[in-house]
Design brief:
single chain, 264 residues, alpha/beta, 7-stranded parallel β-sheet, 3-stranded antiparallel β-sheet, 9 helices, 36% helix, binds fructose -6-phosphate
Length: 264
Amino acid sequence: MLVVLKQDAREVGQEAARIVSAAVRAKPSVVLGLATGSTPLGMYEELVSLHKKASLDFSKATSFNLDEYVGLGPDNPQSFHHFMQSNFFSHVNFSKDRIHIPSGDLRTNYSEYCLSYEDEIKKAGGIDLQILGIGRNGHIGFNEPNSSLASRTRLKELTLETVEDNRRFLPKGEEIPECAITMGIGTILDARRILILATGKSKAAAVAKAIEGPISSSVSASALQLHPDVTFIIDEDAAYALTQRDYYRRVLELTKKYTPEKLA
Ligand code: F6R
């Protein structure tokens, strides 16, 4: 597990975009796993800029988003479909038929639908690079605490904490989603490489538990300790509660010296 410590959210976004763009240039048909939320916004902004100014080409790439709220159609401004469209896809040359985001429109047959989402990932050859954020409760995707560490894409009931976190984004009176369709922790761990981004003090406790705590279904992100190629990119505020910060800096310096390919 590599822990890359950055000064602030802007640097986190830039570093994440550097890694994603290197993956796209190395393999134009790359399969990306994408996240929404406030944390990756800087990364998307930087990727859009690299597309416009440095001809970063997404035309052969495929994407699978982690999750979507049940009950929010793609045109709902609070849906993750809308988020991805307005913050990323409408500004780059991704081919529409290679974009996958779980449907928020379903009302029945969730299990069948989720199996088909897993099948699509398999058919695409699996995810090469998965981007994640982390919730204050340690969730990745919408794998709320106590999700099975082997879980696959499914309907997941949101915690009240997550529901409350979302309330501020929804207009007063609008129904707040209670469930989401999310890739499972097992689905995420199948990705060849994982980048997880965290910024701000509110994430410090979850980040420390994920990196330095025991592996536990109470903190879904701690399951990432089982994956052989995970990079945490975190700013100073989110790194605040880590006890081994100096060692992570040393690992990074020595990685640059001995195995720089790991940082590409
Ligand atoms: C979003 C997702 C969530 C978020 C997490 C952090 O697709 O899967 O796990 O990454 O809730 O959200 P922000 O970045 O808004 O703090």
